[in-house]
Amino acid sequence: MEDFSAKFVSQKISKTRWRPAPTAALQPPELFATGSWDNEENKISIWSVGDFGSLGPNGEYQGEEPQLLCDIRHHGDVMDMQFFDQERIVAASSTGSVTVFRHHQNNQTLSINQRWERAHCHVDPNTRSCGGASCTGVICNNPEIVTVGEDGRINLFRADHKEAVRTIENADSSTLHAVTFLRTTEILTVNSIGQLKIWDFRQQRNEPSQIFSLTGDRIPLHCVDRHPSQQHIVATGGQDGMLSIWDVRQGSMPVSLLNAHEAEMWEVHFHPSNPDHLFTCSEDGSLWHWDTSMEVSEKPSFFHQGGRSTTFLSHSANQSVISAWLNNNPTKDRMEITNLVPNQTLSVNSLDVLGPCLVCGTDAEAIYVNRHLFA
């Protein structure tokens, strides 16, 4: 934790997201958003990290804590959250609604820009009444927003449209936990029985174009992320804490299964510009940095330094491609794994990474920021 600045916020944090940098920007991100859960009143909050933090005379990190710029009440638990653009944030609620908030940077306030009520709900077949179902996942690809939920429904929204552009009712008979874009017209969902499904919005039929699954036990998958430059490589994590790497071009099973956390994995993220690095967080209170960028021969097999323990896990891959995540070259048959928060006890629910910066949120009512990931 020596590289982290901590902020205790008196709220359990369910989601943390960096505001995306402008296209031409070279400086590190300065703003991030958080969403809370399991509190009497939940909030969406915007925080500044500005240009804080420096190295002290002995090389130790001296960080100032993040500063709250503004917040706004959120009805229900924040189940997922994504920046839509520089000003707007899309939040998924346990009430089933999806809300777009606008951050007004001139006076540092948040307002509701748009809301889709009951985007997700359980419909009673007898009365046709609509009961609550959580919206569990949201992903944005301007101008489009895709949501998934407990009701097994997929919605395709467009910003500034009052109604869904497309809805796939009963897309899944089980809970959909997360969603990501594979391409402009294709999304990938993960569900509570260990399946990945690809959906192509160009097709009119309401069925997946491909289905992948973990063999044997139907272990729920909670999170998914796509490799930023090689769109066929996908990472997932689930209830058993395992990290699974998939190649959606072939086969129906994972390429690699990696022993990871001791409890549910809540989020997995490839580094957006340095995808040899991947990050996962878990109910067990750990936050792991997976590094496939270095040759194993250059590194010791185990070391313990500065409160961090590092181990290597070998992984099997059944083909060799350019990506280290799928490579079966013997010299790259291992990866370095570092637990960034070795003393954490309560769940690390969410993380986000951008440039040299990482932010995570916990059930310990704290947010942690590291602005020197690769130092």
How would you sum up this structure, described in words?
It is a single chain. The chain is an all-beta fold and 375 residues long. The protein has strands at 4-8, 13-18, 31-36, 42-48, 54-55, 61-62, 67-74, 78-83, 88-93, 98-104, 109-116, 121-123, 130-132, 135-141, 144-149, 154-158, 166-168, 176-183, 186-191, 195-200, 210-213, 221-226, 233-238, 243-247, 256-258, 265-270, 277-282, 287-291, 303-305, 308-314, 334-339, 348-354, 357-362, 366-370. The strands form nine sheets. The chain has a six-stranded antiparallel β-sheet, with no helix packed on it. A hairpin with a 4-residue loop joins β9 (88-93) and β10. The protein is globular, with a radius of gyration of 20 Å. Mean pLDDT is 87; it is low at 296-321 and 328-332.
